[in-house]
């Protein structure tokens, strides 16, 4: 029976015998079916032949046409993997991806001992080769295969992948404070009046002693500080305040010197020397959030409290003692008639404290809008 089946298939595929395939199928059926059912094929064949005239003829079975794939249109893709010195590489992974509708899954091969690779029976159309090997840069070659073409890929030059090392650099607190201090030194109201002692950056780190002295000195020698001292001296000259200084150029010079000395002493003692010794921050930390009432209370409170270098709020010993010290020193160069001893010193302290509260209110609600180079980060939290 196996011989008959083989012959049936052979005859079916023969182009000249295609028209008689239904008769062959009938004969083959007459031989196989009785064998499966236990009948003699010869008896059944004789009966079929005897009754062929009287029995109705059955329709022929449908013909199944087999089609062999057309390999005349496919092509090959081959190439060689080398390095920059011409040495071949074995074991490199090459993946072929056909870029066509309903494309099959990508095929993969590896380069042989001669560095070569090859893909056969590749349908025509666009394709992409991906060359990859551990330690080397992956490469992609694209092309279009014509029907029956033997495509030779250009030599693939493998190059080592560059080692990438990620290094996380974390700036120290001093470096961050230095960067922020440089920005604070650019803060000027209306672009002219120094506004160096205000912090807009959230969670700003404390200043070092060197930075505190630098900021105090920078403020003291700013041209606006000299102009302000000159303006106050002129007003005092016009109203004959501190009459012991007299009038004329000499009187104006003494008033100018006293006014500038007051500002210099208060700044150096209250914003540099004592903050360094007591580890306190002389700057005002802008709040900028919360209700208006909370911001008003915060600004007023900051005239008598400050943030320590440890980040905690504490009494502003630096500012209070600094004002007392500057007031005491002023008794040395003010006219004797205007020296009222301790009473004047404490009076000046009260005035300075009230003035600081008013200044903080301006800082909290107005000054930032008038400072072009103020930082625009999220405001600090108290």
Q: Low-confidence segments, ≥5 residues, pLDDT <50?
A: 1-55, 62-69, 377-382
Radius of gyration based on Cα positions: 50 Å
Tell me the total number of β-strands.
14
Q: What is the first-to-last residue Cα distance? A: 99 Å
**Whole-number average pLDDT?**
79
Order of helices and strands: HHHEEEEEEEEHEEEHHHEHEEHH
Helix-strand makeup class: alpha/beta
State the helical fraction. Answer: 40-55%
Main beta-sheet annotation: 4 strands, mixed
* Coarse morphology: rod-shaped
Count of runs of 4 or more consecutive helical residues: 10
Proportion of residues in β-strands = 15-25%
Summarize the structure.
The protein is of the alpha/beta class. The protein contains 10 helices and 14 strands.
Describe the structure.
With 382 residues, this protein is of the alpha/beta class. Helix content is 42%, strand content 16%. The strands form 5 sheets. Strands 1, 4, 7 and 8 form a 4-stranded mixed sheet that branches. Strands 3-2-5-6 form a 4-stranded antiparallel sheet, with no helix packed on it. A two-stranded antiparallel sheet has the order 9-10. The longest helix is centred in the last third of the chain and has 31 residues, at 248-278. The radius of gyration is 50 Å and the shape is rod-shaped. The relative contact order is 0.08. The model is unreliable at 1-55, 62-69 and 377-382 (pLDDT under 50).
Task: Write out key terms for the chains shown.
rod-shaped; 10 helices; 16% strand; four-stranded mixed sheet
């Amino acid at each position: 029976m196996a011989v008959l089946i083989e012959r049936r298939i052979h005859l079916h595929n023969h182009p000249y015998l295609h028209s008689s395939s239904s008769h062959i199928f009938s004969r083959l059926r007459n031989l196989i079916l009785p064998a499966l059912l236990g009948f003699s094929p010869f008896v059944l064949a004789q009966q079929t032949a005897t009754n062929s005239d009287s029995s109705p003829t059955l329709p022929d079975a449908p013909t199944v046409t087999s089609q062999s794939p057309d390999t005349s249109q496919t092509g090959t893709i081959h190439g060689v993997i080398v390095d920059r010195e011409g040495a071949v590489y074995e074991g490199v992974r090459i993946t072929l991806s056909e870029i066509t509708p309903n494309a099959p899954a990508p095929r993969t091969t590896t380069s042989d001992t001669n560095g070569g690779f090859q893909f056969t029976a590749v349908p025509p159309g666009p394709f992409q080769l991906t060359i990859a090997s551990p330690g080397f840069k992956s490469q992609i070659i694209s092309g279009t295969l014509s029907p029956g073409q033997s495509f030779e890929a250009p030599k693939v030059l493998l190059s080592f992948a560059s080692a990438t090392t990620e290094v996380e650099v974390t700036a120290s607190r001093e470096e961050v404070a230095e960067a922020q201090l440089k920005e604070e030194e650019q803060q000027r109201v209306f672009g002219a009046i120094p506004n160096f002692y205000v912090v807009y950056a959230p969670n700003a780190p404390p200043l070092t002693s060197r930075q505190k002295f630098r900021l105090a000195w920078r403020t003291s020698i700013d041209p606006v500080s000299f102009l302000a001292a000159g303006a106050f001296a002129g007003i005092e000259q016009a109203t004959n305040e501190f009459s012991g200084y007299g009038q004329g150029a000499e009187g104006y010079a003494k008033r100018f010197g006293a006014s500038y000395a007051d500002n210099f002493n208060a700044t150096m003692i209250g914003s540099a020397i004592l903050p360094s010794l007591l580890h306190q921050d002389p700057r005002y930390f802008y709040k900028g959030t919360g209700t208006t009432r909370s911001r008003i209370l915060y600004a007023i409170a900051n005239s008598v409290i400050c943030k320590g270098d440890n980040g905690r709020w504490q009494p502003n010993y630096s500012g209070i003692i600094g004002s007392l010290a500057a007031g005491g020193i002023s008794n040395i160069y003010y006219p004797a008639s205007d020296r009222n001893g301790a009473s004047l010193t404490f009076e000046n302290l009260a005035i300075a404290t009230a003035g600081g509260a008013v200044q903080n209110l301006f800082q909290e609600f107005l000054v930032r809008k008038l400072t072009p180079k103020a930082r625009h980060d999220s405001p600090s939290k108290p």
